[in-house]
Amino acid sequence: MSDPLKPPAFHRYREIHYYTPGTLDQPFPYQILAAGRSRTGPERPAHTAVYQHHTFILTLSGKGRITWAGRSTDACAATVTWLDTSQKYAHSCHPDSDHWEHIWLGMSGYGLDMLFERITGGRNPVHRANVKMRGVFEDVLQHLKDTSGVKAPISALLAAHLVEILANTDEVLEEPSSSPFHLLMTAVKNELNERWDVRKMASLAACSASHFHRKFQKIQGVSPMEWLKLERINAAKYLLSATDLSIFEVGQKCGYPDPYHFSRVFSRTVGISPTGFRKMTGR
């Protein structure tokens, strides 16, 4: 007969489900590769791993300790931790907690690296989970348990929904307004008619040209010069639709002193000439 005054034995469990993308997955931007649920105690050693995907950990109860990129952070209940687990990481129950229960998802997809940089800023990967988050994690877990049906589109939709929730959470860490990158981008937007190149931009961002190019592309998803071109074209669109400036004047203000070069770049990028775009907007 059990002693009613004795606390119940701590129940540990671990479940894992995998999914291998196939041909039907190719049109979809995101794929969930694995998911699981775990409950562990402080006496268990840390789990250390490296995966070629991103990992999302939703803490249900208790507290976990996660080490990533040389830093340790606490994962408390009702938080979700987003990790780029192509870098070595470790997680365990926090030593001050009697347990840690969580659901985790492994996801791959185009643009996740860029989105991860923009949301976490390379700093704190822990975000407050909103009311929808647990439902999405539970749906993914149940989805991978189910052996019937076509998984590709459902998996991609669930993954995209999760990314959308995280991207719009109030815990998003924007690039601080005083950072060198923010100041650089503001300066460039204010002086689009200047002769900008990677070296000039890198000097304003206080780093080498190679480091600047690599970091800029990782954060923005495009090269510095491609970003500059798109900013110039956006400004040209505005001037063409909102002012009576000539095509030549618009090109000059946007960094294209040669009107033929401006027309060629605009047409290749937008799919219509500057004159055609102006007519389309009713000017």
UniProtKB/TrEMBL annotation:
Claim: Zinc is one of the keywords in the record: no
SUPFAM superfamilies per UniProt: Homeodomain-like, Regulatory protein AraC
Keyword set, alphabetical order: Activator, DNA-binding, Transcription, Transcription regulation
One GO MF term attached to the UniProt entry: DNA-binding transcription factor activity
Keyword match DNA-binding: yes
Superkingdom per UniProt: Bacteria
Domain HTH araC/xylS-type as annotated: residue spans: 182-280
PANTHER family: ARAC FAMILY TRANSCRIPTIONAL REGULATOR, HTH-TYPE TRANSCRIPTIONAL ACTIVATOR RHAS-RELATED
Name assigned to this protein: Transcriptional regulator, AraC family
Origin species: Primorskyibacter flagellatus
